[in-house]
Amino acid sequence: MVAMLLGVGLSLVLLMGVLLIVGTRLRWSVFVDPPEKSALFSTFSFIGRHFGADFLIGLNYFLGGATVLVSIFLLVKLLTGSLTIPR
Q: What is the pTM of this model?
């Protein structure tokens, strides 16, 4: 049961990483040009406001790629049985 929940959670994390990459590639405004008035509440707005849109786009690709790689790695370890889950 725990392994199944972990697998579902990792799949959702994988989906979020893919969504970040695709959203940045398609230039969705929430990822690449968020409104500045939401800088207190949105990490994307804060970073875009202080470091610029080019930095934000590069960071989105890096974070999305790292998220995808780590989640795939952990999913493979979980599916092959080499990931031990403490009880």
A: 0.87
